[in-house]
Amino acid sequence: MELRHIRYFLTVVEEGSFTKAAEKLSIAQPPLSRQIRDLEDELNTRLFVRKARGLTLTESGEKFLQYARRIRQLADQSVEDIINMRDGLTGRLYLATVEGRAPSLIAEWISAFKDKNPLVEYEVWNGNSDDVIKRVLSGLNEVGIITLPYDEEGLDGRLIYEEPWVAIIPKDHPLAKDKGDTIELKKLAPYDLIIPSRRSRRKEIENWFAPLGCEPKIICRMAHMLNAYELTAKGLGIAIYPASAARYVNKGVVIKKIVDPDVTVGYVLVKNANSDLSMVAKQFWDMVIDSQGK
């Protein structure tokens, strides 16, 4: 088995047909089909089922696909690392992040990393914690920032930042007129609430209220904080989000820190515990972890 067999196999999978794969690889279809047959002969199993509407992987093909992707990643990474040793750090860093404080943290880290590694390029994806975790575990992004809580299985995570939760209150709401920049949690119970869309977040917020003998009136869950702000500014409810939200909203609302109890959100830097980082991602990871120790 040679590396070209791996690349040919993956291209056929990605394109869904031998014809399209051959065009992408700039080779004729018969030689491509022969290379795949040679691979199947070496593995002593069929990898594809050929159907009228295209190709599907067999059970063996699905299993081999996992190894093939890892082999290609290691091959590409080895070339990148050797070039980096010769010419300085190059390549592309794939990051995924939640909202809240995370974008500011990412910006600070990229700025510091770029000063030392000006040839590195960046792709930053934004979503909720569940989506970030999926992307990190699948290899779409090497390093991510999520918020607690999370399932630690398959992930290597480091707590990097904490901040309080706040209530974003419509300016004409009765609670907006309360003195001070804090609000007791129990005062929010009678009112319609807008919260982040992450599945585990609802249970967490319900647990805040449970010791007080009341339940939150959650009317809306939203993936993006700015959308929640727009609803709040229109008077449709009180939004509960991390304190960093106050940096992006200021018109039509009043922001108060939630107390009694004090509730905080923790941000965690994560990577796949079962995969090696590329040289670019490893140096970025090490820089961030080292900076947290200072």
Automatic annotation (TrEMBL):
One cellular-component annotation, GO: protein-DNA complex
Pfam families: HTH_1, LysR_substrate
A GO molecular function held by the record: DNA binding
Stretches assigned to the HTH lysR-type domain: 1-58
UniProtKB keywords: DNA-binding, Transcription, Transcription regulation
Family per record: Belongs to the LysR transcriptional regulatory family.
UniProt name for this protein: DNA-binding transcriptional regulator, LysR family
Organism listed in the record: Butyrivibrio fibrisolvens
